[in-house]
Amino acid sequence: MSTLTNQAIAGFDAGFDVEKIREDFPVLKQNIHGKPLVYLDSAATAQKPFAVVDAIRRFHEVDCANIHRGVHELSQRSTASYEETRSKVKRFVNSRFTNELIFVRGTTEGINLVSSSWGRKNVKAGDEIVISAMEHHSNIVPWQMLCEETGAKLRVIPMNRSGELLMEEYQKLLNPRTRMVAVTHVSNALGTINPVREIIQMAHQAGALALIDGAQAAPHMKVDVHALDADFYAFSGHKVIGPTGIGILYGKAALLNAMPPYQGGGDMIKVVTFEKTTYADLPYKFEAGTPNIAGGIGFGAALDYVNKLGIDRIAAYEHSLLAYGTAALTAIPGLRLIGTAQKKASVLSFVMEGIHPHDIGTLLDRQGIAVRTGHHCAQPVMDFFNVPATTRASLAFYNTFGEIDALVAGLYKVKEVFA
Amino acid sequence: MVDDLYQEIILDHCKRPRNCHSMADATRQADGYNPLCGDKLKLFVKIENDIVVDVSFVGSGCAISTASASLMTESLKGKSRPEALKLLEKFHELLTTDTAVSKDLGKLVVFCGVRDYPARVKCATLAWHTLKSALNGEIADPVSTE
């Protein structure tokens, strides 16, 4: 290994056997266009280990039944394993109660649930909602829709050229009209880790609530909603090596109890007559209809896998990978990293002089390297850095230092084509 | 590498796009935008007696979209409006179907490889979609260069 590698892995956890881990991920064992797959798009979705695939398969083959209310054996088994995931999530994010954890389709639905249910009841004309300059569209558009509907105003915390939020500017935005501060924990386009604890504290001091978009944080670091004192925290199962279509909205029980239901239907009621319906208690009040049972069970298996490895060890290993990747990419002439915050996780977003990201993406794909190119659902971020798009390599704990080397070699080949 | 997509002529037109400037006396213009890629294009067309006498573009995009715009401008000059629309149709067929390559396409056949990259078809067609809206649109006032 190069000197860079040695520097990056100083203090590195020797027991973290990435080759053994890779054996658990069937997708990784394949060639793409004749080259071994180098999967660097985990920020879009993470790959799934056998444990997750098997849990979903087992549900369909052995336990399949609808959950809740069924008195027969299969329904009881399904209910038990689906609800067991809620308990696993409780430990994963350190919430006080399982009934503060609402199953949703993903982060996007979690945010929409809050903006619709809490927002319509609590936000009126003249109120203000604060978001940041580095939000994913899913933490911009729901709030914009709420503002349009209510006459509230959307305020945006600016950032500096490194992709760090300007906290003094944030302080200036807060005022008695501020109702909600909705900010991402980790930026999907830049990789910035935001000081969310401080952001939440400041929101509370101003009398506002805080919602954290945890989609890019939950896979890469210990999330403690209790220590953060977050009012709402949303994340997706599929980015934490679980299946798509399942995610979590955490909300403080008092807030959730005071909110009207998001959708009406089966499972979210106690008593229904044509005159009046009494809603179910938390968390079911917000879970209308048959949920993604298989997804929920697969999500539980994903959390087991992550816990077995240990989220802190995962974070440390990924940090070494990121440091190595940052040094390696910065050394490529004509390459500019977009997002150079002091504190970052998992994301290497960049542009190359004279070469459009889509051409980079296609040429890397031909070498078996999967990266994402485009605006990453963060068009305001692209506008801020005055680029139409970036190429983004995003890391997970199953990536290797060798794969970073492959990316670098791949980028030199791209440069040759456009030389 | 990837010779079927990034052919020499495409790379050449990407690095040195032809007719890449605005046009003060254009009779029509249209904007093309590909929100997924962020590719932007402004197309200028000068039509006299229903003949495309000049065409140019400005914008930013990937190699495929820039080369496509550049080669498109070259292939349009002197064509009547109906001929230009017919060419557009043939080009679209080239990218989206497995039908035999039409001889009328000339140099444009270099984009044949794009059909194997479904995610990139939109890059190659951006200029042509913009052309369609320019040709079908109302006659614009001459474009200001200010």
How would you describe the overall organization of this protein?
The complex is a heterodimer of chains A (419) and B (146). Chain A is α/β, with parallel strands linked by helices and 419 residues long. In chain A, 40% of the residues lie in helices and 16% in strands. In chain A, the strands form five sheets. Chain A has a seven-stranded mixed sheet with strand order 4-10-9-8-7-5-6, sandwiched between helices. A four-stranded antiparallel sheet of chain A has the order 13-14-17-16, covered by helices on one side. A two-stranded antiparallel sheet of chain A has the order 1-2. The longest helix of chain A has 21 residues, at 73-93. The mean pLDDT of chain A is 95. Chain B has 146 residues and is α+β, with helices and mostly antiparallel strands. Helix content of chain B is 37%, strand content 18%. In chain B, strand 1 (28-34) and strand 2 form a beta hairpin. The longest helix of chain B is centred in the middle third of the chain and has 16 residues, at 81-96. Chain B is globular and about 40 Å long. At the A-B interface, helix 13 and helix 15 of A face helix 1 and helix 2 of B.
